[in-house]
Design brief:
This protein has 40 helices and no strands. By secondary structure, it is mostly helical. The longest helix has 29 residues.
Length: 672
């Protein structure tokens, strides 16, 4: 279903083995399983280096020579995930898909994600082969089994995809493109309720080329991507299926890169998903998937597999993966086109930023001040009242409460809160009561005081604030600590990293639109700096990334793809090291998608053992009135779990419990 642009082709990592001899291979496998134990290394080396067609010849030769079923012997000799992977490789491709579908729908419960992945990503021929293989292997009708196991619009779309009748003509009617885009808009955004049938008809039947043009036209009509409308108009498994179809229309390898990442991130591995994708894509587009993986995530597919698996299972997966992409090389054609398009979409996007905390209606600072005093007066503290007031007022309203508290009661509200509260809840509530500039200044101070420096906090704050926010933070820092922020940074950091921070803390980034001619010149200078060992590459990257406007840098990064055939983030990862690398990548990611950058920061603050409460508090406090709603959406998209749920799960581990948890969840603003 993915587009094949001019000059591009899909490439697998497993190809036909030269000088192939099925009889010899059958003998090698027989000997590897003969006697006590089995030679697993020989088995994995042989099977992962033969194409699926060659493996079928080996199966036939094995039965002919030894009168035994090779897959049966492999199942007997091998165990666990390694066995599932090797047996999966030995099945004909369509029969492997059929087995995955059968496992997804039999027994108690249904693996909807498996159904979605397979049916959304296969082309017409693959669907027809799958249906026939299912009938042959299980004597049952696949459509009937899916109909009996699913329901609603989700079922209807699955049935449409099962027909394998997507149009394949690359000749596109401009009139029909415009009509389909308008029909989709009218079916969702315009009317009360959603005309799901219209989404099913268009997304389930039109050709890939046609739909790609429809999506572009839709964005112009709706001022948002089709994915955003699907998330807003549809729900449940039907929403997930339609999003998968759209993603596969845009790029099948990108879709699978995302699926692989989600299979391995966090605690535990979704091995069934990992095995299914590695088996099914090894001969089709694994090299493409690797390219998109490195374009999107912090480590290569190879290294993620290496860190997340073990033993023969790991070695087999790495053989299928075919190589490590952490050393950034040049893009193949479609990846370059997608990288270029990504920056173009980023520059054109008109995303409505939305916070989760709004000004309270019927606000009365006098009554709030009195209620807060009552909550802290006498024996014990009424934390519920404090949380309810502070988290449901805007920052400007909180500043009014602070003034009224002092004028009405002659007391310092911040001091009273500090006296009555403790731990993470105290830090969170005090952070909310500060102005944004005071809070940023406090966070910068905390990052630099005492033994050691929290470089990631310095980077996060300085790379994501605009000029006005940085200048206000400088003033707040000087007022609170009687020292210039730049001087503190200079005394606490060094080298190119110090220079980046000093440049950013000036708050003098250009603010104009992109200049194409200058962007092309900047991109060329960055490319030349990477290739010319006589120049200071770090200085050139610093001077451009720290001073140019965000719209201009988007265009620079886009032109960088054109003139180098490389992605700027991957070049930074390869060529630059240490805190400087982290800072420059933060700039690139913030420019690319700031809510996504913060979603990643929040995820890392809560993954693994323990919670990084400073980061969690810093992000939720600083973004709650700016773009926390957008961050929530990115978090759900990236990690398949809501931010709300992650905070609740951390509470079960004792990391975000009680009143602190309640305050965090209120700031989060709801479940997605």
């Amino acid at each position: 279903m993915a587009p094949k642009g001019k000059g591009s082709k899909y490439r697998g990592t497993v190809v036909e083995f030269p000088d192939f001899n099925p009889s010899s291979d059958a003998e090698v496998l027989y000997n590897a399983m003969k006697g006590f134990g089995s030679d697993k290394e020989t088995i994995l080396e042989l099977i992962t280096s033969r194409s699926n067609a060659q493996r079928q010849e080996i199966c036939a030769a094995y039965k002919s020579q030894y009168g035994k079923d090779l897959i049966g012997d492999l199942k007997y000799e091998l165990t666990g995930k390694f066995e599932r992977l090797i047996v999966g490789l030995m099945r004909p491709t369509a029969y492997h898909d059929a087995k995955e579908i059968k496992d997804a729908i039999e027994g108690i419960g249904t693996d909807e994600k498996c159904l979605i992945e397979i049916l959304a990503s296969r082309n017409n021929k693959q669907i027809h082969d799958l249906v026939n293989a299912y009938k042959d292997a299980y004597g049952r009708d696949l459509e009937a089994d899916i109909v009996s196991d699913t329901s609603g619009h989700f079922k209807k779309m699955l049935v449409v995809l099962l027909q394998g009748t997507r149009e394949e003509d690359d000749v596109v009617s401009e009139d029909l493109v415009e009509q389909d885009a308008q029909d989709l808009f009218d079916a969702g955004e315009v009317q009360w309720g959603t005309d799901e049938a219209k989404f099913i008809t268009i997304l389930g039947n039109r050709s890939v080329t046609h739909l790609q043009m429809v999506f572009d036209k839709y964005e112009k009509i709706a001022n948002k991507e089709i994915e955003d409308s699907i998330r807003g108009e549809l729900s449940g498994d039907f929403e997930k299926l339609m999003l998968a179809v759209v993603q596969c229309i845009r790029s099948v390898p990108m879709y699978f890169a995302k699926r692989l990442f989600k299979a391995m991130k966090g605690l535990g591995t979704a091995d069934n998903t990992l095995i299914r994708i590695m088996v099914s894509r090894a001969e089709i587009d694994m090299l493409d998937i690797r390219e998109f993986f490195r374009l999107s995530y912090e480590k290569s597919l190879y290294n993620m597999i290496k860190d997340d698996t073990s033993g023969e299972y790991k070695r087999s997966l790495l053989k299928l993966c075919g190589g490590d992409d952490d050393l950034a090389g040049e893009f193949f054609p479609e990846a370059a086109q997608l990288a270029y398009k990504m920056w173009e979409v980023s520059s054109m996007a008109r995303v409505e930023l939305k916070g989760t905390v709004q000004p309270a209606a019927n606000f009365n600072p006098d009554s709030d001040a009195q209620a807060l005093r009552k909550a802290m007066k006498g024996f014990g503290t009424d934390e519920d009242t404090i949380i309810d007031i502070v988290t449901h007022r805007s920052n400007a309203q909180r500043q009014e409460i602070l003034q009224k508290y002092k004028s009405l009661l002659g007391r310092d509200l911040m001091a009273d809160l500090k006296s009555e509260l403790s731990g993470s809840l105290c830090r969170l509530i005090l952070g909310l009561m500060m102005t944004p500039a005071q809070f940023d200044a406090k966070m910068m101070r905390k990052a630099m005081e005492g033994a050691g420096t929290d470089e990631k906090a310095l980077i996060e704050i300085l790379t994501t604030r605009n000029n006005q926010e940085i200048l206000a933070m400088n003033e707040a820092y000087k007022e609170a600590y009687h020292k210039n922020l730049e001087d503190s940074i200079t005394s606490d950091t060094s080298g190119h990293f110090c220079r980046v921070l000093v440049s950013l803390v000036q708050g003098s980034r250009e603010e104009g639109p992109a200049d194409l001619a200058r962007a092309q010149e900047d991109a060329k200078e960055l490319g030349d700096a990477v290739n010319d060992e006589s120049t200071s590459m770090e200085t050139k990257f610093l001077s451009i990334l720290c001073t140019r406007s965000y719209p201009h840098l988007r265009k620079v990064f886009q032109e960088f793809v054109t003139c180098t055939n490389k992605d700027v983030e991957q070049v930074i990862r390869k060529e630059i090291s240490g805190d400087l690398k982290t800072a420059l990548i933060a700039i690139v990611r913030s420019i690319k998608n700031k809510p996504s950058y913060f979603a990643d920061r929040l995820y890392k603050s809560m993954k693994g053992l323990g919670t990084d409460d400073r980061t969690l508090i810093r992000v939720l406090v600083s973004r709650s009135e700016i773009d926390l709603f957008n961050i929530r959406r990115e978090y759900k998209e990236l990690h398949d779990v809501s931010l709300h749920e992650s905070i609740k799960v951390e509470a079960l581990c004792g990391d975000t419990s009680g009143d602190y948890r309640k305050a965090l969840l209120t700031l989060c603003g709801g479940e997605d």
